[in-house]
Amino acid sequence: MNKLPIWIDTDTGIDDALAIMIACKLEQLDIVGASAVAGNTTLENAFRNCADVFNLAGRADVKVYPGAIKPLIGELKTAAGVHGDNGIGGAIIERSKAPIETEKAWDAMYKKTKELNKDLTIIAIGPLTNIATTIIKYPDFVEHVKQLNIMGGAADGGNVSPCAEFNILADPEAAEIVFISGMKVNMFGLDVTHKAYLADEEVLDLYKIDTKAAKLFKDSTSVLLANRKKYYLHGLCQHDSTPIVYMVYPEWFKSEKCGVYVETRGNITRGKTVTDLWSDTKFKERNCEVFLDIDRQKFVKLIKEILSSY
Ligand code: BDR
Ligand code: CA
Question: How far, in Å, CA of 256 to CA of 296, rounded?
Answer without folding.
Answer: 18
